[in-house]
Amino acid sequence: MRNMTRNTQKGHKAKKSLGQNFLVDPNIARWMVENAALNEDDVVLEVGPGKGMLTKEILTSQCRFLHVIEIDKTLAPFLEPIVKTSKNRMSVIWGDVLTINLKELSPPPTKVLANIPYNITTPLIWQILEHLVPLGTRELLLMLQLELAQRLCAKPKTKDRSPIGITIEKMGKAQIVKKVPPNVFWPTPKVESAIVHIIIDKDLKLASDHTWRRLLRVAFARRRKTLANNLSCVYDFFKDKDKTSKLLDDLKLPTTVRAEELTVDDWHHLYEFISKID
């Protein structure tokens, strides 16, 4: 690993401002591609390819096409040669993935494979769910900071429960499939990472639903407050304690319940009610 890391450093200095931690272990890249089970119908999106470790491995698969989005143009000497040898199966889009219109990717991605920069993980996943899932993206295999990975997969009544994790659960499922040590990256991060497999197979437009997003955002605004207390800050209905108590009783929830304690079915029933009064 020491020699591999030294070679990887040549010709480029990682930018801390961009959250760059380059994957330097080809075994991890190979594992991701094998577990993505890419076939000739798959169109892949990779975000933050860095020097192309995962990119090159994706192109050894049967995938039909690969979109690569990279913000750092100083990485062109590493990525452009890969494009030239890809036999028209790959394109590089230079820019900030958070400002690029993902709906314009053609052909639209069916799967996303990426070692995502830690500093953009949550907004990027929201964008994928909102803009790409309705167009056909059904699987994501993402290398993330372990702490965030646990948040995406958190069960009810745990401190890691979050709006994005609940949304993914309602749209499909997320699972940590592999933990990744810091020494497979350069520079070596101070945190552990994990690979998360997300499958989307229902409620494909949920992430675009304003009522759903607002409900979760308000409910989790102050985690130590009760659900009713948080909702009363925005929804007039919940300012009436008697009405709130009856609603929660109908939903079989205690008046002291907090947002992190609700199951995805609880959220569905609450969302249906909010949709009628919002």
Automatic annotation (TrEMBL):
SMART domains: rADc
Amino acids binding S-adenosyl-L-methionine: 21, 23, 48, 70, 96, 115
Listed GO CC annotations: cytoplasm
Uppermost EC category: transferase
A UniProt-annotated Pfam family: RrnaAD
Alphabetical keyword list: Cytoplasm, Methyltransferase, RNA-binding, rRNA processing, S-adenosyl-L-methionine, Transferase
GO molecular function ontology, one term from the record: RNA binding
Ribosomal RNA adenine methylase transferase N-terminal domain: residues covered: 28-202
SUPFAM superfamilies to which the protein is assigned, alphabetical: S-adenosyl-L-methionine-dependent methyltransferases
The enzyme's E.C. designation: 2.1.1.182
Principal cellular location given in the protein's record: cytoplasm
Function: Specifically dimethylates two adjacent adenosines (A1518 and A1519) in the loop of a conserved hairpin near the 3'-end of 16S rRNA in the 30S particle. May play a critical role in biogenesis of 30S subunits.
Record's protein name: Ribosomal RNA small subunit methyltransferase A
Organism (species): Acetomicrobium hydrogeniformans ATCC BAA-1850
Lineage, top ranks: Bacteria, Thermotogati, Synergistota, Synergistia, Synergistales
Gene: rsmA
